[in-house]
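Internal tracking record. Fields below are filled automatically when a chain is submitted to the structure queue. Please do not edit lines marked as system-generated. If the sequence contains nonstandard residues, flag them in the REMARKS field before resubmitting.
Queue: standard
Priority: normal
Entity type: single polypeptide chain
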Amino acid sequence: MTVRIDDTDRKILAELQRDASQSLDEIAKAVGSSKTPVWNRIRKLRDGGVIGQHTVFLDADALGFEACFFVLIRTSEHDAAWQARFLKALKDRAEVQEAHRLAGDIDYILKVRVKNARAYDVFYQALISEVKVHNVTALLSMEEIKSTTMLPL
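SYSTEM-GENERATED OUTPUT FOLLOWS
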């Protein structure tokens, strides 16, 4: 189902991206509408798949997850069975915050959040014990400069 999105929908989406815990009254005021039409639009956007799950952002450092690694993976395996095992291994590991299949020399890039380098090694050893990879390069992020999930509406 394709959902038509107008300027009011974009304003509502921008408000929800900024703070999804706002009340309908606050969102309606911010977009220049009333509560019922805003609720109907949000429901339409949810039903149409534009709005997904609602979550909260946790402070990784405050919870002791101080190391963020970007893991570059090259593989010589490209058959469906290997890919299924690899995707299952990634989905089963909470440390993997993001995983992308790439075009170019690198096949996959992962964003892995762990407590420290030792915890990364435990993750790495478990991953390579489950799936064969040709080459793995881990890059430690020294500083997070920008991180957002907000789309430029």
